[in-house]
Amino acid sequence: MTTTHPAGTPAPTASPAPANALTGKRRVAFASFVDENYLPGFLALLRSLALSNPALCEDFIVLHDGLRPASVARIRELHPRIDFRRVDAAHYDTYAKGDQDNYLVRKAYFILDVFRIRDYDTVITLDTDMVVLGDLDELLRLREGLAAVPQFFYGQHKLNSGLLVIQREYLSDAFCARIDEVGRNGAYELDKHDQGILNAVLDGDFVQLDSRYNFVKRRLSGDLPVPDNTAILHFTGRHKPWQGGEAGYGLAEDRWRESELSDAEFHASYLALPGAKHHDLLVHYGTPHVRRTADPDSARRVAAAHIGAGEYQEAAELLGSVRIPVDEAWPHEVLGHALMSVSRYEEARAQLLLATAAPNRAATAFSRLAQIAWIHGDDSGAARYALEGLGVDPTHRANRLMYKRTRDAEAPAQGPPADQLAHVAFYMDRQGNAGDKLLPESVRLAFGRDTGPARWHSVHAHRLFDEAALERVNARRALVIGGGGLFIPDTAPNGNSGWQWNVPDELLERIDVPVMVYAVGFNAFDGQAYGHGRERFLSSLRKLVERAAFFGLRNHGSIEKVRELLPSSLHDKVRFQPCPTTVTRQLVDGWTDPARRDDTVLINAAYDRSGLRFGHDYGHFLAEMATAVKGLGTRAEVKCVAHSLDDERIAFDLRREHGIALPVIPMYDFGNDEIRDTYARTRLVIGMRGHAGMIPFGCGTPVISLISHPKMAYFLSDIERPDWGISVHDRHLGARLVERAAGMLDDHAAAVADVHGRQRELWKVTEANAADLRLIQAGVRV
């Protein structure tokens, strides 16, 4: 298959490595062959797919042998992730029997080009004479084989190719060679074309799907109604609904006409659907709807989708473009959220105050007002707003945490500024992520045994770095920034830097003490982008690297990502500095390895941004973890270790779905010494969070990483142990976890020795960097 782009569409840039190369996340796409004759059917198909599956949006590959620019534009208007690929009929000439000009023959042969796709793990074909009427989740969860509905009239051993669910093993040169061989030999039914070829190749060896996924029109002869459970209705035969239809199928054609809508009708219908909607679809259809109608509630929903994806400027621009009535509290609250996320704090405050008038939005609005006050260093104001929010809703978690943060905050006794280092970090609240709680102290240990206020001046990364903060930092010996994944767009959004430290460029440039960036990570997920704020982030990043005397990132994957964002002149300034949690045994004063370990295996799963982590595979992951827990339970006691409250979900889900009881260790309630002690005394940790791998490793405990984020693979690559990680999408995750864990548990002494050996290599890097850092603090340029 050759790939070209129709006239009027921009040529793509060179494709980078697949986003799922490190995480193993399945890439799923739909595919159809489209020409001008069947374009009305395809447009109806796209509308029906969105209206029946509003939370589903995967890439859609359009195979074609020539489409007009206007047709290309119409297709793009109906789907935000279209990939046009032109196919070449030449490779079918040898077995098309001179019938290439017949559309049905062309369509039948060209859909075989789907087997030549190499950049997806699962491809689902849909004929352009189909409409989708029901949920397709079951198809998206399929992971093995080639699945299709058996032919209704031709026996259960043959498939109907209108709907195919094709896994990677069939998207291969070997399978294409078998198709070509059968096609050249003519060993198939001439009147079935692609069905005949596939049936001849497969010889009945396919996964059989229920007929509701390819319910053929012919079953409804005599004007029978479409069954309620039909997921995909297929208008087989030569008479198509957009061509006038066929007598005897009126009720079926009425279902097709439900998707024959104008753009305005379609957009309004999509927005009116109940339940969750996919970000890409909601933005794609909602934006023109808002521009057409100026409806504030629609604008609020689209803006909320932007916010959920970290697109704060887009949210502020869209919702700010419509007139919001004073008494419409929810749009005011969402606009306030967007504005504060791009550091337009005064405008945000005005919107949030309006939102406090409505009881159903007041608690959230007060929590955001409290956040703005805290960002500006006004603890008493933040406490007042949080208390007002608790007055509306005593259970509101954000207000409760802010009230505790501000009421319990006491300025610690400080040593002489000239003897101190300033430290920009994310200082975690109570019951916050255990890894982030441990990080600031771990960074400080890398600079000496004293981690307290006598030697360190704390600067919370999420508070606005203003003139007063600048003065306090410049009074210290130097500034340390780290650790953790500070380069991420949505953990603490702001318009001053575009990353977690809320620092304007002009103040960053006026820091006149040495700046040392220590073990910071680039933490964006696969599929996560900086959106409209990318330029702001790039500018801040460049200024930070230029200003830094030391710029150390915690893994080589982050180094590669950051260097891609910098001019070549700054590449050499970016160096490797392992996360200090990975060398805990070397840093903690008086560390001794445990004389004995508990006979336990600790499992950690993470649920933040779960769509980016699991895609369509959460059910698969949970079932495989059930297998793993049962297998591991014959060797040790298996427990869930929760870095945050949300991490407990795996215990709840395993109990509900698989009847497995898993004790929970609430590490989010632990102090730093208790975190280290717990990880040092277990035999093995199987963790999904980055620091559920790095902290136990640093304590000398063997680890296996559940990879759902690139940073896990980065760390294992750095220590030259990629086999210590398994993708959460792995088909045989449970069995492989048990096998690898068994090897580590059976020869535990060797596994611990291997961890110690890998750690020594990271410690060598840390010691070499420490020598440079001492020179920098002494005023020597390195």
Structure description:
Helix 10 (296-308) packs parallel to helix 12 and helix 29 crosses helix 30 (748-777). The protein has 30 helices and 23 strands. The chain has a 7-stranded mixed sheet with strand order 3-2-1-4-7-6-8, sandwiched between helices. Strands 11, 12, 13, 14, 15, 16 and 17 form a 7-stranded parallel sheet that branches. Strands 20-19-18-21-22-23 form a 6-stranded parallel sheet, with helices on both faces. The two termini are 54 Å apart. The chain is an alpha/beta fold.
**Using DSSP, what is the number of strands?**
23
Q: What is the overall pLDDT average?
A: 91
**Which structural class fits the helix and strand makeup?**
alpha/beta
Radius of gyration: 29 Å
Low-confidence stretches: 1-17
Characterize the overall form. Answer: globular
Helix content: 40-55%
Provide tags for this entry:
782 residues; alpha/beta; seven-stranded mixed β-sheet; seven-stranded parallel β-sheet; Polysacch_pyruvyl_Trfase; Glyco_trans_8
Compact overview of the structure:
One of its GO terms (molecular function) is transferase activity. By secondary structure, the chain is of the alpha/beta class.
Fold topology:
Elements: E1 28-33, H1 39-52, E2 59-64, H2 69-78, E3 82-86, H3 103-110, E4 122-126, E5 130-132, H4 137-141, E6 146-150, E7 159-167, H5 173-185, H6 194-202, E8 207-208, E9 215-216, E10 232-234, H7 250-257, H8 263-272, H9 279-293, H10 296-308, H11 312-320, H12 329-341, H13 345-355, H14 359-375, H15 379-392, H16 397-407, E11 421-425, H17 434-445, E12 456-460, H18 467-474, E13 478-481, E14 484-487, H19 505-508, E15 515-522, H20 534-547, E16 550-553, H21 556-564, E17 574-576, H22 584-587, E18 600-604, H23 610-614, H24 618-632, E19 637-642, H25 649-658, E20 664-666, H26 672-681, E21 684-687, H27 691-698, E22 703-707, H28 710-718, E23 725-727, H29 733-746, H30 748-777
Parallel strand pairs: 1-2, 1-4, 2-3, 6-8, 9-10, 11-12, 11-13, 13-15, 14-15, 15-16, 16-17, 18-19, 18-21, 19-20, 21-22, 22-23
Antiparallel strand pairs: 4-7, 5-10, 6-7
Helix pairs in contact: 1-2, 5-6, 8-9, 9-10, 10-11, 10-12, 11-12, 12-13, 12-14, 13-14, 14-15, 14-16, 15-16, 24-25, 24-29, 29-30
GO molecular function: transferase activity
Domain Polysaccharide pyruvyl transferase: 479-707
Organism: Streptomyces brevispora
